[in-house]
Design goal:
371 residues; mainly beta; 5-stranded antiparallel sheet; 3 helices; 35% strand; disordered N terminus
Length: 371
């Protein structure tokens, strides 16, 4: 059951990954602004497919759905924003906040910026010489995969960049025609290096000056034909890098920055190996240094440094299909799902989250004054 659901989920994400950021203006550098003062509508519940959870600096929550836009929750009311309100797409893939409090919403068609009053579509600036830079306040996007393109926002412009091509045909048996550099995961380590996980080309680390490539077959196409991809990148307390799987972790050699060694991550039981739950699609390192990782239909896994613990997520009718994991400002862990909305950590387990709405009547055309 788990293997079948895993395959379905991988096909779902991989097929959607090849959508491009074609909704962005190619020639105009001027941003398109939704010039309206009354946007969004008050609703009473979240969509079942919530792929992103985010809490901003003010403590308010944002929930990104796979089909119905984004939901804003300030503990008083729940407000929904869609393309009708200026979003570039209703499929939300990421949410970030800059140091000025602006919210950036990543979609397969591009990036929308919300300044508290209106949505703006960020135009892409193509770097003619593929000039890579790394600033402490940069925001990074992949727009859900667009060939080997990634996007860096420096506070002014959104730059399109390409990962450096490698000899993946000899190293991994993958040809260029298979779009191996599609970017799934983007994360930072504690030194500020930016990591990129791809669908077939392994993982890349950029330190501001040069790239380190980890091109391992276990991060590409597996012997049984599966293509799990590097969807999440975690750094543990010892500085080891976990690349979307429980089997291996990687230690970057400090004296030779272009080399690494591959280590065993955890001792896996025969049951886990038999069920092949060896890859995770999202993960976080919590405030206590524990690693949390989610699998599609296989629950949540927690690694405290010694063993791998599993928390099943079931609503009494079916397995809950997990997409994302997030830790809020108070240390609580949230789970976004593909079939049952949002779950929140309560004690040692997780319960379905139902927003408490103080304003009972849902209506359209409300002013967005709570932001």
């Amino acid at each position: 059951m788990i293997n079948r659901l895993t395959k379905i989920f991988l096909l779902l994400l991989i097929s959607s990954s090849f959508q491009s950021c074609n909704g962005q203006t190619k020639s105009e550098l001027k941003q398109k602004e939704t010039k309206i003062t009354e946007i969004g509508k008050i609703v009473s519940e979240l969509d079942n497919q919530i792929w992103v959870v985010f809490q901003d600096k003010k403590g308010d929550f944002w929930f990104g759905s796979n089909r119905t836009g984004i939901y804003f929750y300030d503990r008083n009311e729940l407000k929904q924003f869609t393309q009708n309100d200026g979003l570039i797409s209703n499929q939300i893939r990421g949410i970030q906040e800059d140091n000025k409090g602006n919210i950036f919403i990543e979609t397969p068609k591009g990036v929308s910026k919300f300044n508290g009053e209106a949505f703006t579509t960020l135009d892409v600036v193509k770097s003619p010489k593929n000039e890579w830079k790394l600033g402490p306040n940069d925001l990074w996007f992949n727009c859900n995969g667009n060939a080997n393109n990634v996007y860096r926002y420096d506070g002014q412009s959104l730059y399109e960049l390409k990962l450096p091509e490698q000899d993946i045909e000899n190293a991994l048996g993958i040809t260029e025609s298979e779009n191996p550099y599609v970017v799934f995961g983007i994360d930072k380590d504690k030194k500020g290096n930016i990591w990129f996980g791809t669908v077939l080309a392994g993982a890349f680390r950029f330190d501001g000056n040069s790239f380190l490539w980890i091109g391992e077959k276990e991060l590409s196409r597996l012997p049984d034909g599966r293509e799990p991809g590097v969807r999440s990148i975690l750094e543990d307390n010892d500085g080891n890098i976990w690349l979307s799987n429980f089997k291996r972790k990687y230690r970057i050699k400090s004296d030779l920055t272009k080399e690494y060694e591959k280590l065993k991550a955890v001792e896996l039981s025969e049951e886990i190996v038999r069920d092949k739950i060896l890859y995770f699609n999202s993960g976080i390192k919590d405030t206590e240094g524990n690693l949390w990782m989610t699998t599609y239909g296989g629950g949540v896994w927690k690694y405290e440094g010694q063993e791998l613990l599993n928390f099943e997520i079931n609503n009494g009718k079916e397995d809950v299909l997990l997409i994302c994991i997030y830790q809020d400002n108070n240390g609580k862990i949230w789970l976004g799902t593909n079939n049952d909305g949002v779950y929140k950590q309560t004690g040692k387990g997780f319960e379905k989250f139902e927003p408490k709405i103080k304003k009972a009547a849902a209506n359209k055309g409300n002013r967005c004054t709570s932001l």
